[in-house]
Amino acid sequence: MKMSSDSEIKIDSGLLRLDLRTAREVQKAFIPQNPPSIPGLEYETFYKAAHGVSGDYYDFFRLSGGRWGIAIGDVSGKGMGAALIMANLRASFRAQAQQSQCDPAVAVKRVNQLLHESSPIQFYASLFYAEYDPPTRTLAYVNAGQNPPIVIRDQGGRTEFLRLDSDGTPVGLFENASYKSVNFQLETGDVLVACTDGIIEAENQEGELWGQQRLESLLSTCYRRTPRVVLQSIVQAVATFGKGRGPMDDMTLVVLQVQV
Q1: 65: CATH
Q2: DSSP state, 41?
Q3: Structural domain count of the chain
């Protein structure tokens, strides 16, 4: 059997690093570099890959009739395979959302079928997709296995949490999965926080998870704060909890606030 020489190993590892760097640059182009201005909304985002490239996904895009598509998702697994599925998910979703005729459930169902047909069985994606109508402040959404986004609302000086729960299976998991959209009425001042597992499941040195309870405890102090302050508070709290430990999973965070 012919053994690989040290020089061949070095060349292969060099090509691998080059491929990874190229993949990272391509994926970077998929993440909104100059997020669009959405009428009546102010928002901030945070995105961090655990391993060079990421299976996390978020997007904002214009739809017909003045509506806006908002998506956040998390592909199972990590690394190059998850990143490729993420790229497929993003492209499929943008195409299908434009043809969904104002029903997010139709778009999600089509994307589920496409992802199931074109992806290995071990890959699927949790996904939250919403269509926002600025004049009415209505959010029509589908939650397909994603951590329920939280809406923070002031009720006479008391902070109320409203969860946009999941009742759909992750996309790509079952070919004939069905989905339904839910209409949610946002109000001026509402703050919506959506994140992937990497935020909730961040670990400290002892292997303890940051968890949903810590997130909600922090958010209870965040009403009337700007999206930037809310986002920075969460990111700092997670980093402090981890005490310098690198992320074990990709992290994505989206914070929106209704201005008018």
Answers
A1: 3.60.40.10
A2: E
A3: 1
Is the predicted pLDDT of residue 29 greater than 50, yes or no? yes
Q: Measuring CA to CA, how many Å separate 42 from each of 108, 158, 233? A: 25, 23, 17
Structural domain contains residue 45: yes
Tokens 């965070």 appear where? 253
Cα angle vertex 191, ends 186, 193, to 5°?
A: 110
| 9 confidence band (pLDDT: 50, 70, 90) | very low
pTM of this prediction?
0.86
Q: Is residue 120 part of a domain?
A: yes
Residue 21: pLDDT above 60? no
**For the CA atoms of the chain, what is the radius of gyration?**
19
Pair 86, 55: CB distance under 8 Å: yes
- Percent helix / strand / coil, the chain, rounded to 5: 35, 30, 35
